[in-house]
């Protein structure tokens, strides 16, 4: 049973840290459960708002007024203002950061978050999210859905999903930045919107020496988007993107070395580095067949390449790792307005992957022998149907999603071939309910079943390795969204996710999985939106959570009731925006995290707790914006910690940094 913290200081902090801003816009009076960070606009109404079922639960949207002046090494950092999300900051070159929520860890051991960019799946085969191709200036808004009640997605949609939407407005601007650690950045956006045709281009480049020694980073991206409207009922879109990223890796330190000098690199890692590339092209068609029937089609090709040299400790050998993920896919969605109250939605999707994964034992980047060469296909096909009723006070939608897999793996080192695990069709029921008790007071609840699909070699079976069933995850959430005043929005929810036969990737680098057993994750979220007046606004959140081994199996009874590794006991955010005059703005932001265990078995010490404060000043020059940003104002020490054998390895995160930026709008 989840224990609520009764400490009055913690309760006071919870109340203080749970604000989300409606910055410079009046709250949207809608029958929903969504909270906004940033200006409340109709971000979901470009074409098909009335043709999609409404999500009910912990849905958060952050808009461009909170994103446009951010400057980050990794795009994940744009999500740090979202309630209930947290990060593992490896800080090891191209393997830098991953995100987690709902009691899962962000270490890549269990794929659990679906990422989409402009509606296109953007997870690597292993489930890691790849969003670095988007710079802050190109992002229009971001939506995070927590929980497993969303029927639209199957693969990786275990704890929720993230949707990034790029800009398509009529604007032209450039921006330059200089900052700490010899950081240089340039961004440029060009958008031209005509009656039935628009074109949009973005170019970005960033270079930095990094906070730690041997942590140089350089990345470049280019994107082009073209939108054609042959009639009032049809949109045809084409999106193309190229991105490359090169970085050195400073390696992991002992606990004492990290405390003594967090900026140093490990001597054994002096030859560690890597590069990654993303290539993407997709076509999108939106068509209103008539006043009741809407059709959306997407098709895409993309390739993610990763190449790196890595060494984890003085005792280990250096490895060269090469991964190529080539993905093709298609998504079709149909919306049918049966009547004013009834909406039927349905969809089909397919993603085919043709991948290779190679590893070599190396010394100073010279190959000694090859230790892995997998050549494999991994195909996911699925679909959903959902029926929604929306009356004056009641909204209820129920649906089913089904997913299946095909593919085979060839071990090129020994010629062994294996077929993908044949678990048949996995059916996942979903249910969303919202009831408006009185205007501006909504009760909501949802239920969902999702699945965990292994990746890599464990996804395939041979004659000596029998088939197994995919692990199912059962999620529940109930809450209240209340707007007691025009300037204040609030949301509170309780949630739980249970699983049996949960799998986790082994930490020995083999690519194999092991069965954790039965797990339980639960917690509660608080969220508030406050737009006090034209001068003051604030945003924030507080999430408390537990993630435990309920029944680990007969051979692991000593770990029964233990916390799962890498899951902080709480996360919180706090933002305050002060705008004394129309052209000047001061923003204060705090991100807070509790500590976590580094092992499911050894639980004698915890790591990871921090309080980070950022400060920003922006001045609107009329023709552009001048900005000063100070990240980690108090130079707080924080780190990522991982257990290898019986010893922990440590990767310190960035200390204080100051950036100066200047933009020009044409």
TrEMBL record:
**Is this entry keyworded 4Fe-4S?**
no
Keywords noted in UniProt = Cell outer membrane, Ion transport, Iron, Iron transport, Membrane, Receptor, Signal, TonB box, Transmembrane, Transmembrane beta strand, Transport
Q: What is the name attached to this protein's record? A: TonB-dependent receptor
Q: Give the family this protein belongs to, as stated in its UniProt record.
A: Belongs to the TonB-dependent receptor family.
Residues in TonB-dependent receptor-like beta-barrel domain copies? 231-633
Q: How does it sit in the membrane?
A: Multi-pass membrane protein
Q: Name one Pfam family in it.
A: Plug
Q: Which residues form the TonB-dependent receptor plug domain?
A: 54-160
The signal peptide, as residue positions, is 1-25
């Amino acid at each position: 049973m989840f224990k609520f913290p009764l400490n009055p200081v913690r309760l006071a902090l919870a109340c203080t840290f749970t604000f989300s801003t409606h910055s410079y816009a009046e709250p949207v009076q809608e029958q929903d459960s969504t909270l906004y960070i940033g200006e409340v606009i109709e971000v979901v109404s470009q074409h098909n708002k009335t043709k999609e079922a409404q999500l009910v639960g912990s849905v958060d949207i952050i808009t461009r007024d909170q994103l446009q002046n951010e400057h980050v090494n990794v795009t994940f950092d744009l999500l740090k203002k979202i309630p209930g999300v947290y990060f593992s900051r490896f800080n090891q070159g191209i393997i830098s950061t991953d995100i987690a929520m709902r009691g899962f860890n962000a270490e890549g051991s269990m794929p659990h978050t679906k990422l989409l960019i402009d509606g296109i799946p953007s997870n690597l085969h292993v489930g890691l999210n790849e969003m670095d191709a988007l710079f802050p200036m190109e992002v229009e808004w971001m939506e995070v859905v927590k929980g497993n009640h969303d029927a639209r997605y199957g693969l990786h949609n275990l704890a929720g999903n993230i949707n990034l939407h790029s800009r398509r407005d009529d604007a032209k601007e450039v921006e330059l930045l200089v900052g700490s650690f010899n950081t240089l950045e340039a961004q440029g956006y060009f958008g031209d919107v005509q009656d039935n045709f628009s074109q949009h281009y973005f170019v970005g480049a960033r270079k930095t020496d990094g906070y730690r020694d041997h942590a140089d980073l350089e990345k470049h991206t280019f994107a082009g988007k073209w939108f054609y409207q042959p009639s009032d009922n049809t949109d045809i879109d084409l999106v193309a993107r190229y991105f490359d990223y090169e970085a050195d890796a400073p390696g992991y330190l002992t606990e004492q070395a990290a405390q003594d000098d967090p900026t140093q690199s490990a001597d054994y890692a002096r030859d560690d580095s890597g590069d990654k590339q993303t290539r993407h092209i997709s076509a999108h068609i939106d068509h209103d067949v008539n006043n009741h029937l809407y059709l959306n089609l997407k098709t895409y090709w993309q390739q993610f390449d990763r190449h790196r040299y890595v060494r984890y400790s003085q005792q280990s050998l250096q490895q060269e790792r090469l991964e190529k993920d080539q993905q093709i896919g298609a998504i079709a969605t149909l919306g049918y307005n049966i009547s004013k109250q009834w909406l039927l939605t349905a969809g089909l999707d397919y993603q085919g992957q043709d991948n290779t994964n190679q590893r070599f034992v190396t010394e100073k980047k010279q190959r000694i022998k090859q230790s892995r060469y997998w050549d494999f296909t991994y195909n996911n096909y699925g679909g959903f149907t959902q029926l929604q009723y929306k009356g004056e006070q009641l909204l209820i939608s129920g649906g089913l999603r089904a997913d299946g897999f095909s593919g085979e793996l060839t071990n090129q080192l020994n010629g062994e071939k294996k077929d993908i695990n044949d678990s048949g069709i996995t059916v996942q029921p979903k249910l969303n309910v919202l009831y408006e008790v009185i205007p501006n007071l909504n009760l909501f609840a949802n239920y969902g079943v999702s699945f965990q699909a292994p990746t890599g070699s464990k996804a395939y079976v041979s004659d000596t390795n029998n088939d197994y069933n995919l692990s199912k995850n059962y999620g529940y959430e109930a809450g209240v969204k209340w707007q007691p005043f025009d300037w204040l929005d609030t949301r509170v929810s309780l949630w739980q996710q249970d699983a049996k036969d949960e799998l986790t990737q082994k930490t020995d680098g083999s690519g194999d999985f092991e069965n954790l057993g039965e797990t339980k994750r639960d917690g509660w979220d608080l969220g508030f939106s406050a737009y006090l007046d034209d001068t003051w606004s604030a945003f924030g959140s507080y999430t408390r959570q537990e993630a435990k081994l309920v029944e680990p199996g007969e051979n692991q009874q000593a770990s029964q009731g233990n916390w799962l590794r890498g899951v902080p006991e709480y996360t919180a955010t706090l933002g305050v925006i002060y705008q004394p005059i129309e052209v000047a703005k001061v923003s204060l932001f705090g991100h807070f995290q509790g500590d976590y265990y580094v092992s499911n078995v050894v639980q004698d010490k915890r790591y990871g707790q921090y309080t980070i404060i950022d400060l920003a000043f922006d001045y609107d020059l009329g023709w552009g914006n001048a900005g000063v940003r100070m990240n980690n104002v108090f130079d707080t020490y924080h780190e990522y910690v991982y257990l290898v054998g019986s010893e922990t390895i440590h990767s310190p995160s960035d200390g204080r940094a100051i950036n100066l930026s200047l933009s020009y709008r044409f």
